[in-house]
Design a protein that fits this description.
Length: about 300
């Protein structure tokens, strides 16, 4: 994903479009600079410091309803919390008044979570007002700049931007400073079945694997190739080669799987056949006379598919 310097239209550019609201905030900060009291012109809960900065209790902050990111790894939050304990929140959190005594986080949810973990009672904020489309755009750009979104989260965010604003792929790409081809390739990932999307999110397959799978025209062939990726650990290049073979109607050569020396090769071969037949991760534990067969599924849709395959 693109880093901060790679975006033609970044977070700062989007924020600049709300200059009128920022001017209102600045007037309020100047009016109440030097006062520790909460000014009546500001929403309840916001305090000002001697420099006119705005501060909020992080417990009053709640997630942006348009936040595209759904996963926040605990280890990275712990690292950020340690930094926050030592240095505080350097960049103010962008917020919007929710109208019920709380505030939506427009940009800065990781910083907010880390601040809570660090035990901070006040965090610096900037007050804004945005429509739903702009909330999504800003949250998307902030996450892309930090490479925080998984491929499916990013794809869904592009889709929602297009839906909210009635935008084309080209228009959506310009909004977030991306190439149209980048947006188009991301959106194609949403055509994958749920279990394949889940494998992509969990890192079992990469976006390169996903694009190769999407290139397979026949759905049954695509399902079989997915099973080969999971079961045999195919590289992206190997997946692309086998995808081309499927589309050309050629017999697909099976990759020789490296197994532990102690494992029965007949058992490993049988396991691979189960994987290709069911199109999902399968584990055979035991030997050829007794043991267990474990079949993984990743959604209700996937479970129904396996049910129909097994019954038939």
């Amino acid at each position: 994903m693109a880093k901060k310097g790679g975006l033609g239209r970044g977070l700062d550019a989007l924020m600049a479009e709300s200059s009128e609201i920022e001017q209102e905030n600045e007037k309020l900060r100047q009016q109440f600079a030097g006062s520790s009291a909460v000014p009546s012109s500001l929403p309840a809960g916001i305090e000002t410091d001697e420099n006119g900065g705005l501060w909020l209790d992080p417990d009053l902050l709640k997630p942006n309803p348009q936040q595209p990111r759904q996963h926040f790894p605990e280890d990275s939050l712990q690292e950020l919390a340690e930094s926050v304990r030592e240095h505080g929140i350097v960049q103010p959190i962008l917020v919007e008044d929710a109208g019920d005594g709380t505030f939506y986080i427009i940009a800065g949810e990781r910083r907010t979570r880390a601040a809570r973990m660090a035990g901070l009672k006040k965090v610096p904020v900037q007050l804004r007002r945005y429509n739903d489309q702009r909330k999504l755009e800003i949250a998307l750009i902030e996450n892309i700049q930090r490479s925080d979104l998984d491929p499916i989260e990013e794809a869904k965010a592009y889709y929602h931007i297009m839906e909210l604003g009635g935008l084309s792929q080209e228009e959506a790409a310009k909004r977030v400073g991306k190439k149209r081809s980048t947006v188009a390739n991301a959106l194609r990932l949403l055509k994958l079945p749920e279990d394949m999307q889940s494998s992509l999110v969990k890192g079992e397959i990469t976006a390169g694997h996903a694009r190769a799978l999407l290139s397979v025209e026949n759905q049954s062939d695509r399902r079989e190739l997915f099973g080969r990726i999971i079961g045999s650990g195919l590289s992206v290049r190997e997946t692309e080669q086998q995808a081309a073979e499927y589309n050309a109607g050629k017999p697909v050569k099976e990759k020789k799987k490296k197994n532990k020396p102690t494992r029965d090769p007949d058992l490993a071969a049988l396991e691979q056949k189960f994987i290709e037949a069911l199109g999902t991760k399968v584990s055979l534990k035991g030997d050829l006379t007794h043991g267990s067969l474990v079949v993984d599924y990743f959604s209700r849709e996937d479970l129904d598919r396996l049910y129909n395959i097994i019954l038939s």
